[in-house]
Every structure is written in C-alpha cells, then in structure tokens.
User: Fold these one by one.
Assistant:
Number 1:
Amino acid sequence: MSGHNLEIKDFLVNRYLKSLYKVTVSSGKEVTIVKEMDSIKKYIFAIDNYDKYLQKASLISKIGEEFIFHLKKCLKLSKQTENFLKLLHKNKRLSRIAEICDEFSGFLEKMEGKKTFYIDYAKSFSAVEKKKLQKNLQEVFGGEINCLYSCNPSLIGGITIRFHSKILDYSLKSKLLRLHSAIKGDNYEN
C-alpha cells in the first residue's frame, strides 16, 4: 500500500476516510489524529498475520472490543480516534483499519488542497519563527503549504519536520543519540 496514493480506488475506505476527515477538522486535532493513525498502523503491522487477526476482530465482537481497548491503552488515543475505531468495529469494518491509517495523511492533504507539514518542537515556537519556517518550506516545495505544529518536550530542543514519509530531524534528542552511539561505537542513524 502506498501511504500517499491520492486516487483511492476503494469506495469503502474512501467513505471512512471522509468520515475521519470530518471528525479531524471539526475537532481541530489534525496533528494528533494523523500521529495516532501512524501509531496504529505501526502497531498493526507489528502483529503476526495482522490481516487474519483484523478479520477476526471485525467478525468476533469480543476480539474487536479487546483490540480497541488495547490500542487505546497502549497508544493513549484521543476520544475522536477511539470513537472512530468503535464505529469501524460496530460496522464490522475493523479489518480495513490498516488501509485507512495508511491513506489518511495523504487524504487529509488532498482535501485541504495543500502540502501538509507536521512540525514537532521541543519548547516554545514563536509566531515569527513559525512564519519564517513556513516561508522557507514554501520556497523549497512550492505551492500552498499547511504547517501543523505540536509541542513534543521529549525532543529536548530543536524541531522535527514530517512531510509524507520523510522526516527531517533537527532535534537535540537525535543529536545526543548519535553522539552516544558514536562514543559507544554503535552505528546509530536516524
């Protein structure tokens, strides 16, 4: 599956993407929900025979409920994402969650008609700094862009910029990890 194939052929997946998009925009939690969809996708792909497991979770109510409960607990999901998963489960469509997660950020971008960048920053990020970063990104990538900001203190300092599957990591955390690995002789690459 391509995470950014904007021509979604599957009507059912497209219908649920539209539903999730409406919830995302109305709640103003674009960054949170995109990150949660990415986390769910990684979690699912780590399950052996995930496709068979999701089929069971779709068809057997108790397995589906346990799966959603476990996702909520492990990933600390927002109420919006939890409710979306419950909707999929109620409609016996939980087996499609991997596809929905895989397509969501590209769908969000398509609906907004802009290139969307997800920026995490460690500490305060002033309006002037945000405007300068947005201007620089627009010069490099062209067209209309949308920057969605989120504070992530675990970065210690600096920022990370995500666009599609590419991540530019300018955080102090990753620099410290690289330095630690260099000292230990490991081959850490971010």
Note: The CA atoms of residues 75 and 116 lie 23 Å apart.
Number 2:
Amino acid sequence: MNIYATINSVFLKEREDEEAEMIIFGVDPGFAITGYGVIEYKGNRFRTIDYGIITTDAKTELSRRLLILSDRLQALLEQHKPDVMSVEELFFNTNLKTAIAVGHGRGVVLLTAARAGIPVFEYTPLQVKQAVVGYGRAKKEQVQYMVKVLLSLDSIPKPDDAADALAAAICHAHSYRGEKLEVRD
C-alpha cells in the first residue's frame, strides 16, 4: 500500500441490483503522451467505458504542457466520476532525462487525482503483468492481447499507452481488496 491510498468499502457502489460496482480510471503516465482507460468492474465482469491518450506538443513550454495535461485529465475525471485511479509506476533503467520528464507528468496525474478527491493506487509493471496475464514477466504483446480478451474488445486498444492504462485498471480490479499482487517469476 502506498501513502496516496487507503482501501475500504467506500470504493464500491451498491446499485439497484445489489452487485458491487467500481469505476476504475487507469493511467499510463507520461509527459508527451499519457494513456488513460476507464472500466467498470461489476460482479467479476468488465465493461470498457472509455480509453485514449492525452498528448502535449513538444514545442510548447514545460509549464504549459503540464497545465494542458492537468486540464484534460481533470475534464476526464469529471466526465467519468471514477471511484479510484490506478497508476502504473515508472520503470526506467537507462535514460535519466526521460525519467525526469515522465516524472513531471506523473506528478501532475497524482496531483489532479488528489484535487478531485480520487484515491490513487500504484502498481509496478510486474504487478500489472501478473494481474492481466498471470505472469509478471509477460511480453507487452501478451498483455495487450489479454486486455483485448478480458474487456471483450474487437481489437487490441491503440495506441499502446491506452492499452497500458486499461491494463493498470484491470490490475486494480483484480487486486483492490488490499493486497498487492505477488509477482511470480
């Protein structure tokens, strides 16, 4: 569990049919491209609500790009009214400059969710793969295929950033009861 979130039954809404329902807003954080995916999880079934990307122009100054990301994300959160946000943690092993730039976008995502009062849950790439595919070291193509299957989509969501955000949302649906997934090598 991280400092951004606590888990309790407030995240589940009781609907007319008495089945628990949760709207999960998944995010693949970025700076130039941030993927998002919104799903409903009800009675162990998924329904895709929306997915896509938020982009910013590389020619625009940094502070303006961050504002654009925040404004667009805020509009999506207001539109979909999610119960929780699921964010994939960053993983970089070589390019520090890219990690810092993506970290800016990630900070905006976390701040925007906090301002909207939406609890944030974070998962490592290994945990997302484990939840979606059943194997923490699965290849990107395997994850994308399982996102398509689990969400009953006609095709793999494009671009990849949107598919990754949907995978983060699925991960939360499979693990929201308070336990982070153990990664199986």
Note: Strands lie at 13-14, 20-28, 33-42, 45-55, 84-88, 120-123.
Number 3:
Amino acid sequence: MDTLTDNHTPQHGDHAKRPPQPERAYVAAARRCAAAEYCCSDWRTRFSRQGFDATQIETMVARLVSEGYINEERYARAFVHDKAAYNGWTARKISIALARKGISTHLIQAAIDEGIDNQQQMALLHTCLRRALSKGRADEDPRKTTARAIRAAAAKGFAPADIYRMLRTMTAETPDDD
C-alpha cells in the first residue's frame, strides 16, 4: 500500500514541510498585538523561528508598525510599568532588558522617567534588604547574612552604591542589642 497518495491527510509533523505563509502569520501577529504589547524584536524572533526570510520578516514587522499594532514607545511604557509594579525591577534592570530588545535609549529613558519614582525604588530596596536580612539565622555570621542581602538587591538591579547607602541607613536606624 502506498502511504503517500494525493488524498494524504497531514500528520502531526507535516506542517513543518510547508513553506511559511506570510499573510497568515501577519494576521496571527496582528491579533496577538491587539491583545498585548510587543516590540519589533519580539516579532522578528518569532517570524524567524517560523522560517521566514529576512525580507519577509522586515515587511511584516514594518506593516505591524505602520498599522499601529506595534509601537515601541507604548511598549517601553508598558514594560516599565509592569516590571516595576509587578516584578519589583529597578530602573537599571529594566533599562538593560529593554536595550537587549533593541529599544532606543531615548525611548527607554522617557519611559523610565515617566514610570519610575525614585522614592518608590528606595522603598523597594529597603523592603528587599529587610526581607533578606530577616532570613538570617541567629547563629549565622552577620557578614554572610549581609552578603546574601546584597546579592538579593543586586539581582533586582539596584546599584551597589544605593545598596551600601541603604544598608548604612538601616544599620543606623537599628538600636544595638548590647
């Protein structure tokens, strides 16, 4: 029996053999962009993984931009808001992440200036350090606990100078147990 006939029904892996369809991919991308914010690099990566060539990718991305589905200024503002409000990221960490996505420096700075309050960032740093310091055991060397707190704050994206300044402030606020 011949398994490859004209009335062959596609099997699970067969779709990978067909060439990618730009219009179909564009419509799917537009639908997703209407529901959430994306940047150009997000779609370049997705389209590339789907097997489109560079010309097709740039055409689809340009169309998404021209039709308003992608707006990198809007994306940067949403990214800053979400990462600061829900993930506790700092301006520094957000800036690095947006730069990796190819967002321009001026858009990053404008979004950060609009969306991040320095006092909120310092309150977040205080909370981060307080939490990390409170996890230290009574019999643990205080230097180990402090080092763990510093690493936790650095992982959130706080600058070393801010971390050490806050630790000095917190130490000055804490009464001695002696």
Note: The chain has a mean pLDDT of 87.
